[in-house]
Design a protein that fits this description.
This protein folds into 2 domains: 114 residues, Immunoglobulin-like; 74 residues. 33% of the residues lie in helices and 32% in strands. The longest helix has 30 residues.
C-alpha cells in the first residue's frame, strides 16, 4: 500500500505558497505529492519546473489532475530546490526540459522552499540505539544518542540556514557531509562497544 504525503501548493497571481515547510527525506517510505490549487484565472496545460540544485538545471513535468508526484529521479539530488509553475496554451505541450517561452501564458515567481535531504538521521526507528546490560555502556550510549539527536537538529538547522544566511550550496553540502561522517564514527564506536 502506498502512503502519500501531500503538500498543498496554492497559486494566487504570480505567487506560490505552502502552509508548511517542505522537507523531503529521500529515505522516507512515503510518496510525496504536490497538490495544486489555482486562483481560477488560469486555463491551459499546467507544468511544474523544478530546478535541480546540483545540476543547476530545470526539470519540467506536467501536472496531472492538480497533482505532481516527487519521484526518486529527483530525490537523488539533495539540496534546496526551486519550483516554478508554468501554464501554456492548450495547443502547445512541453515535451523537453527546454521549451519555447513565448508559448507560456503564465509563469509564476520562484518558490524556493523545497528541501530534499539525503539524511538517514531522521530514521528514528532504525537508528535509535537500544540499551544493553552494562550501566557504564548505557551511560555512554545515552550520550551517543544525545549527540545523534544534536546532529539531527544541526542538519535541519543547516538546511534552514541556507535560506536565511545565504550560505552557498557547496558549504551546506560540506556541512551535511561532515555531520554524516561524524555520525558514522559514533555508530562505529557504538558497534565496537556493543560487539
Amino acid at each position: 500500500m502506498i502512503t502519500y504525503k501531500d503538500f498543498e501548493i496554492v497559486q494566487v497571481g504570480k505567487q506560490l505558497t505552502c502552509t508548511e515547510k517542505i522537507l523531503i527525506n529521500k529515505y522516507d517510505n512515503q510518496t510525496i505529492r504536490f497538490h495544486f490549487t489555482y486562483d481560477g484565472t488560469l486555463d491551459g496545460n499546467f507544468y511544474i519546473a523544478l530546478k535541480n540544485p546540483t545540476l543547476n538545471k530545470y526539470f519540467i513535468e506536467p501536472i496531472v489532475d492538480d497533482y505532481y508526484e516527487i519521484t526518486s529521479s529527483l530525490t537523488v539530488y539533495p539540496g534546496r530546490w526551486t519550483m516554478i509553475l508554468i501554464v501554456t496554451d492548450l495547443a502547445y505541450e512541453i515535451t523537453e526540459d527546454t521549451f519555447d517561452q513565448s508559448q507560456a501564458i503564465y509563469v509564476s515567481d520562484e518558490f524556493s522552499k523545497i528541501i530534499i535531504k539525503d539524511n538517514f538521521l531522521n530514521q528514528e526507528d532504525q537508528d535509535a540505539i537500544s540499551p544493553v546490560q552494562s550501566a557504564a555502556i548505557n551511560a555512554l550510549l545515552n550520550r551517543v544518542e544525545s549527540t545523534r539527536q544534536n546532529f539531527v537538529t544541526l542538519a535541519t538547522n543547516a538546511a534552514e540556514a541556507a535560506e536565511t544566511a545565504s550560505l552557498s550550496e557547496t558549504n551546506c553540502r560540506n556541512y551535511n557531509t561532515n555531520i554524516s561522517l561524524m555520525y558514522d564514527q559514533i555508530v562505529r564506536m557504538y558497534n565496537e562497544l556493543k560487539g
